[in-house]
């Protein structure tokens, strides 16, 4: 959807995200005691701006042991309210490895 954001194509970006949602949906049937699903992006490209911004990038982590916050919508605006605050990509990998008991405890 990055190019659609640059083009200012709201309907195109919405349709692309809906197609992505449909592809990801079957993954929600996994056993999240044994698996971890992380969905995010590398940067925000809002349609109204048509360029990359410093807005927080939404992140969702699905696993039995993840502490839940109050965010209910996957969006840049809601990311401001999330429990992860701003996080680096390498930290996401460490969190996933920790949840799967593959590495040392993250932050310990």
TrEMBL record:
GO terms for molecular function: metal ion binding; phosphoglycerate mutase activity. InterPro entries: Alkaline_phosphatase_core_sf, Metalloenzyme, Pglycerate_mutase_ApgM. It catalyses: (2R)-2-phosphoglycerate = (2R)-3-phosphoglycerate. It comes from Archaeoglobus fulgidus. Keywords: Glycolysis. Pathway: Carbohydrate degradation. Belongs to the BPG-independent phosphoglycerate mutase family. A-PGAM subfamily. It holds the Pfam family Metalloenzyme. This is Phosphoglycerate mutase. Catalyzes the interconversion of 2-phosphoglycerate and 3-phosphoglycerate. It comes from the Archaea. Residues 1-98 form the Metalloenzyme domain. GO terms for biological process: glycolytic process.
